[in-house]
Amino acid sequence: MKPFVYDYSLEEWQQWMKDNGEQAFRGGQVFDWLYVKRVSSFEEMSNLSKGLREKLAAQFEFVTLREIDRYQSKDGTVKFLFELQDKNAIETVIMKHNYGNSVCVTTQVGCRIGCTFCASTLGGLKRDLRPGEIVAQIVKSQQLLDATEERVSSIVVMGIGEPFENYEATMKFLRLMTHEKGLNIGQRHITVSTSGIVPAIYKFTEEDTQINLAISIHAPNDTLRSKLMPVNRRYPLADLLDACRHYTEKSGRRLTFEYALMGGVNDKAEHAEELASVLKTIPLSHVNLIPVNFVQERNYVRTTRDDIFNFQRILERNKINATIRREQGGDIAAACGQLRAKHMESSQR
Question: Which UniProt keywords apply (predicted)?
Fold first, then answer.
């Protein structure tokens, strides 16, 4: 398959130009057209010669994603269902906040982590996304926002898939998003979420970036976490917490722990007390409590409002900072994997 236009860094574009008998600065012009002007074809790159545009069109794929559906929530959330060139489907979500527009991106087609409460794992893992397929989700989102002169102000890598199991593509995507000659999104406005791939957490720590890290923990002990998240059998809680301590001590950055509350499963007072005891050993920790989304194929129910606030109070009484995630897009099935699961079911029929 040809490379996608969004697969290449600025330096790779410059090198491609030199390798193909062009001046290196032409690579910078292509990069500007892609990320600053955000054109949709080589033909629009008017400061390139016709011959060069034809050469580029012959050697690169420009259309990376095809929009299958777009849903807009009454709260402003927009969810895309995109088709890839191999006919697989992925999801991307734009969330409106009072501080700007955040985009949640997907890094894999499906997921093999197997969390029992998540729609993303339905059907297993099909393949990793290429860097350009992740980048294109942000470009598509920004093109939509261009119509109202808004911009993508933050990114969360929390869509379908485990980003640290597609590590190199994810890191290349992050470098492209923060490039000063591209979209120039600040590193501190980007968060990567992992289910706890321990070796990759150590590797990410050594990247020495300002990009935020979030850990999906969802249970305060190995027994319960292994039931909810099979990845815990490979990377037990003690090993995960060691990696988290290393990250906070080396980076000096706050670490967010995501905790999806499931009624009668992990939301009792004793769970909150145990979680507080576990996280006291992690400096600069913060807990983001997430009322679980209903997924038709799963049996979990959401925690009651009173129990959510009680869970938060227990954590804060134990000096663990905790917030409750604001729910968005509930009327458009905005939870990860729900639209893709419906699309897969429809396609199979």
Answer: Methyltransferase, Transferase
Instruction: Label the pairing between strands 66-72 and 78-83.
Output: antiparallel
Q: For residue 122, what is the DSSP state?
A: T
Q: Is 336 a catalytic residue?
A: yes
CB-based contacts of 341, cutoff 8 Å, min separation 6: 119, 122, 123, 297
CA dist., res. 234 & res. 250, Å (int): 24
* Positive or negative torsion for Cα 234, 225, 340, 194: negative
Domain 66-348, CATH class in plain words = alpha beta
Pick the catalytic residue: 22, 91, 133, 165?
91
Residues 6+ positions from 174 with CB-CB distance below 8 Å: 157, 190, 192, 209, 211
Q: What is the mean pLDDT of the chain?
A: 93
**What is the value of pTM for the model shown?**
0.93
- C-alpha 322/C-alpha 275 separation (Å) is 11
Torsion 96-102-104-105 (CA) sign: positive
Catalytic pick from 150, 180, 336, 345? 336
Q: Which CATH number fits domain 5-59: 2.40.50.140, 3.40.800.10, 1.10.150.530, 1.10.3720.10?
A: 1.10.150.530
* Residues 134/106, Cβ–Cβ less than 8 Å: yes
Q: List, for residues 103-129, the tens digit of each pLDDT value.
A: 999 999 999 999 998 888 888 999 999
